[in-house]
Amino acid sequence: MDLRQLSTINALSDAVTVCEYQGVKIIRIIHPMVEAGISLHGGHLLWFKPEGEKEVIWLSENAEFDLKKAVRGGIPVCWPWFGKAAAPSHGFARTSEWSLSQHRENENGVIVSLTLEDNQETRDIWPHKFHNQITFEMNAELKVSLTSTNTDTQPWSYGGALHTYFNIANINNISITGMGREYLDSTQAGKECQGSDVLTFNAETDRVYTHPQSMILIEDQSNQRTITVANDGDNAAVIWNPWQQLSISMGDMANNSFETMVCVESTIHTPTIELQPGQAHTLSTRIAIQH
Ligand code: TA6
Description:
Blueprint: E1 7-11, E2 16-21, E3 24-31, E4 34-39, E5 44-50, E6 77-78, E7 99-106, E8 109-117, H1 120-125, E9 130-138, E10 142-150, E11 156-162, E12 165-167, E13 174-177, E14 182-185, E15 191-194, E16 198-199, E17 205-209, E18 215-220, E19 225-232, E20 236-241, H2 243-249, E21 261-275, E22 280-290
Antiparallel strand pairs: 1-2, 2-3, 3-4, 4-5, 6-11, 7-8, 8-9, 9-10, 10-22, 11-21, 12-21, 13-16, 13-18, 14-15, 14-17, 17-20, 18-19, 19-22, 20-21
6-O-phosphono-beta-D-tagatofuranose binds at residues 70, 83, 89-90, 163, 186, 206, 238, 240, 263, 265.
Protein name: Putative glucose-6-phosphate 1-epimerase
EC number: 5.1.3.15
Family: Belongs to the glucose-6-phosphate 1-epimerase family.
């Protein structure tokens, strides 16, 4: 994505501007502590770069900005289900148009909130009333909180994920800890498996870790940094790298770009969360860098 191609629509404050890129509205944050971009299409964070750091979030160089699709990379919001539990895969929130509801800033950073409510299109797919608010707190760290409220008269259940793509120097030279040992292997039809405490990569990896610790660490030796991921409101951590063959089959990924990404996702898998009318639940992820 060439940021020079963003055209400015409206400056909302010193740090927050509404821009457009290939027909998609993007909230651009340029602040002394952090630069970031959030697409209203999907309520999707696209980039996040704290001052003095390399880009933390991976965005595909072949990402397509098509209002019918989810952008490849960033933090897609999978909701109200994870994966192929129903159609469309990973739910409709990542392809819906969200609204900017709030932005605040001070010398420490910027907070942006977006909302998505049910409409005819969402009720045709999933017949429930809801209010979703996603809040991005951006400074040296990034906290993303997705609060889902049942605004219907009947209970409903949901799952999903903050499907974060992390930017790493080389998949062959990272290790992940804190995800636990028990996982369902999506490359083997969800087979229950036991792994070890340290995860390294040498093939396609698509796992639902069912007992993650409160903090997952991505040690990126080549970048000489560790990315810490603290999830809350989740019941699983999905870890994904498509490796080469699958990358080649995806039109919105360059053939070798699997080398510089790994997904660590704050996930509601099974059981899903049931909300009574008026009840709310928050799924979050807090991302920080250690040297
Ligand atoms: O979170 C892992 C996963 O569910 C994988 O199975 C893989 O398909 C990936 O998400 C991406 O899904 P997408 O629908 O965005 O192509």
